[in-house]
Amino acid sequence: MAVIRTVTIEPGRNTGWHYHPAMVQAVLLTGVLTRVLEDGTVEVTRPGQFLLELPEQRHIGYNLGEEPLVILANYHERPGAPLSVDAEPTEVGAAAEQGVLGHGPAERNCNCTGAVRRAAAG
After folding, report:
1. Angle CA 52–57–58, to nearest 5
2. Are 63 and 11 in contact (CB under 8 A)?
3. Residue 119 in 3-state DSSP?
Protein backbone atom coordinates (compact mmCIF):
# COMPACT_ATOMS: atom_id res chain seq x y z
CA MET A 1 0.00 0.00 0.00
CA ALA A 2 1.12 3.56 -0.59
CA VAL A 3 0.33 6.94 0.90
CA ILE A 4 0.34 9.97 -1.39
CA ARG A 5 0.83 13.39 0.20
CA THR A 6 1.90 16.87 -0.69
CA VAL A 7 4.70 18.31 1.40
CA THR A 8 5.26 22.08 1.56
CA ILE A 9 8.50 23.53 2.89
CA GLU A 10 8.53 27.29 3.38
CA PRO A 11 11.56 29.39 2.31
CA GLY A 12 14.52 29.05 4.67
CA ARG A 13 13.13 25.88 6.28
CA ASN A 14 14.31 22.27 6.31
CA THR A 15 13.01 18.78 7.01
CA GLY A 16 15.54 17.84 9.67
CA TRP A 17 17.66 14.72 9.26
CA HIS A 18 15.42 11.70 8.81
CA TYR A 19 14.91 8.50 6.86
CA HIS A 20 11.99 6.52 5.50
CA PRO A 21 11.60 2.80 6.35
CA ALA A 22 10.35 2.18 2.80
CA MET A 23 10.99 3.82 -0.58
CA VAL A 24 9.59 7.26 -1.41
CA GLN A 25 9.02 8.39 -4.99
CA ALA A 26 8.28 12.07 -5.52
CA VAL A 27 8.05 14.90 -8.02
CA LEU A 28 8.82 18.51 -7.24
CA LEU A 29 5.90 20.78 -8.13
CA THR A 30 7.31 24.21 -7.13
CA GLY A 31 10.47 25.67 -5.64
CA VAL A 32 13.97 24.17 -5.54
CA LEU A 33 14.82 21.32 -3.15
CA THR A 34 18.41 20.93 -1.94
CA ARG A 35 19.00 17.56 -0.27
CA VAL A 36 22.09 16.38 1.57
CA LEU A 37 22.36 12.58 1.67
CA GLU A 38 24.11 10.46 4.29
CA ASP A 39 27.10 9.86 2.00
CA GLY A 40 27.67 13.62 1.56
CA THR A 41 26.04 13.82 -1.86
CA VAL A 42 24.17 17.08 -2.46
CA GLU A 43 21.23 16.85 -4.87
CA VAL A 44 19.27 19.79 -6.26
CA THR A 45 15.79 19.08 -7.62
CA ARG A 46 13.77 21.57 -9.68
CA PRO A 47 10.07 21.71 -10.63
CA GLY A 48 9.00 18.76 -12.76
CA GLN A 49 11.96 16.63 -11.72
CA PHE A 50 11.56 13.23 -10.07
CA LEU A 51 13.38 12.11 -6.94
CA LEU A 52 13.76 8.78 -5.22
CA GLU A 53 14.49 8.27 -1.52
CA LEU A 54 15.80 4.81 -0.75
CA PRO A 55 14.72 2.90 2.37
CA GLU A 56 16.67 3.90 5.50
CA GLN A 57 18.84 6.42 3.62
CA ARG A 58 19.38 9.36 5.99
CA HIS A 59 18.95 12.80 4.45
CA ILE A 60 17.85 16.38 5.04
CA GLY A 61 15.99 18.63 2.61
CA TYR A 62 16.28 22.42 2.41
CA ASN A 63 14.30 25.15 0.74
CA LEU A 64 17.04 27.71 0.20
CA GLY A 65 14.86 29.67 -2.24
CA GLU A 66 12.40 32.50 -1.83
CA GLU A 67 9.15 30.67 -2.65
CA PRO A 68 7.36 27.72 -1.03
CA LEU A 69 8.60 24.33 -2.16
CA VAL A 70 5.90 21.73 -2.87
CA ILE A 71 6.58 18.02 -3.32
CA LEU A 72 4.06 15.36 -4.38
CA ALA A 73 5.30 12.25 -2.57
CA ASN A 74 4.33 8.59 -2.89
CA TYR A 75 5.33 6.87 0.38
CA HIS A 76 5.55 3.10 0.13
CA GLU A 77 4.55 1.59 3.46
CA ARG A 78 6.35 -1.02 5.51
CA PRO A 79 3.76 -2.73 7.76
CA GLY A 80 3.92 -1.44 11.32
CA ALA A 81 6.53 1.23 10.52
CA PRO A 82 6.07 5.01 10.45
CA LEU A 83 6.45 6.80 7.12
CA SER A 84 9.38 8.87 8.43
CA VAL A 85 11.86 8.55 11.31
CA ASP A 86 14.03 11.30 12.82
CA ALA A 87 17.76 10.54 12.51
CA GLU A 88 21.17 11.92 13.36
CA PRO A 89 23.36 12.98 10.42
CA THR A 90 26.37 10.91 9.46
CA GLU A 91 29.74 12.61 9.88
CA VAL A 92 30.19 13.03 6.12
CA GLY A 93 26.56 14.17 5.74
CA ALA A 94 27.01 16.84 8.42
CA ALA A 95 30.21 18.06 6.70
CA ALA A 96 28.37 18.33 3.36
CA GLU A 97 25.50 20.13 5.08
CA GLN A 98 27.98 22.66 6.47
CA GLY A 99 29.26 23.22 2.93
CA VAL A 100 25.72 23.85 1.64
CA LEU A 101 24.82 26.24 4.45
CA GLY A 102 28.17 27.89 5.05
CA HIS A 103 27.89 27.06 8.78
CA GLY A 104 27.25 24.12 11.08
CA PRO A 105 24.18 21.88 11.00
CA ALA A 106 20.88 23.68 11.19
CA GLU A 107 18.17 22.73 13.61
CA ARG A 108 15.09 21.19 12.08
CA ASN A 109 12.67 23.98 11.29
CA CYS A 110 10.31 22.74 8.63
CA ASN A 111 6.73 23.83 9.01
CA CYS A 112 5.67 21.25 6.45
CA THR A 113 2.07 21.74 5.39
CA GLY A 114 0.40 18.36 4.91
CA ALA A 115 3.65 16.56 5.64
CA VAL A 116 3.98 13.24 7.36
CA ARG A 117 6.23 14.84 9.94
CA ARG A 118 6.08 18.33 11.36
CA ALA A 119 9.07 19.92 13.05
CA ALA A 120 6.90 21.68 15.61
CA ALA A 121 5.43 18.35 16.71
CA GLY A 122 8.85 16.70 16.97
Report:
1. 115
2. yes
3. helix
